[in-house]
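Researcher: Here's my situation. A collaborator sent me these components and asked whether they could plausibly form a single complex. I don't have experimental data yet, so a predicted model of the whole assembly would be a useful starting point for our discussion.
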Amino acid sequence: MPEKHFYFSIGAAIGSGVSYLIGKNRHKLQNQVNIFKAINNKSRHWFLYFPVIIFIFGLWGLIPDIIHASGLLSKEITRGAFFDVFFFHSLFEKLEDTNKELDQIFNWVGQAILVSVSLGVMVFYIKRVNKIIKNHEKNKLKDSSHTENS
Amino acid sequence: MNDYLTGAGHFGIGFTLGFSIMLLLYKVKKHNLTVQLYAAFIPFFTGFIASLPYLFLGVKSSEPWLNLFLFYDFLHFNEQAITLFGRLHLVTLLCGLMYLYILMRYIALVKHCRRYGWRRVF
């Protein structure tokens, strides 16, 4: 079967997409939607914690494996049609059963997604820091030229 | 548990080593913005180097020159390394916690820069 990280990585990829959309519309959201208003009131830096969304989506993909590992349901049941809700868990398991090579490909794809997402999140923070520093320096220059003129 | 160290185990060892180097750099080069921003890539780099031969060789390992990849050949059948890094869920947990630390540090850096800009004390 595909390793657990494959299902986690699908969730992480979807979570990244959701985070991107939230990030793009965050000003609108924090002014109009009550939950985001409340979160913004608590901390104006709330969007910096967006990796939590990625993690939650990733965990969603692991639910069938967690249920199976904890002994609540058998593997046959967690491969039922209902469990396609968890990022097509049953479908991927069946695909892998029919073609063993797909298992390796799924694992590689999962690894590639995880590396891209984890490095991508770091690049986001680096870009953010560089932008903030640039803005600070611009403001400093403006302030100093303003005081010289006056 | 296998009688050899899997790719994840090699990655875990490399990542841990890189993480230690990163922490050391954070302490020593406290005032260097480049270090504060980019040192977090070191664990990924060392983890990649450490697990690179596994991608091509898998279980087989008997070439001394493979030790160039963070002592790959030495660690591959080393009992202590297998005990510590042989369990996938433990390696995942360990690397996850280290990555969490990296993210928390980035968040703190962004907050600091928003408030004060880049000052020499972080």
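Model: Some features of this prediction you could bring to your collaborator: Chain A touches chain B through 20 residues (CB under 8 Å). The first helix of chain A runs from residue 4 to 24.
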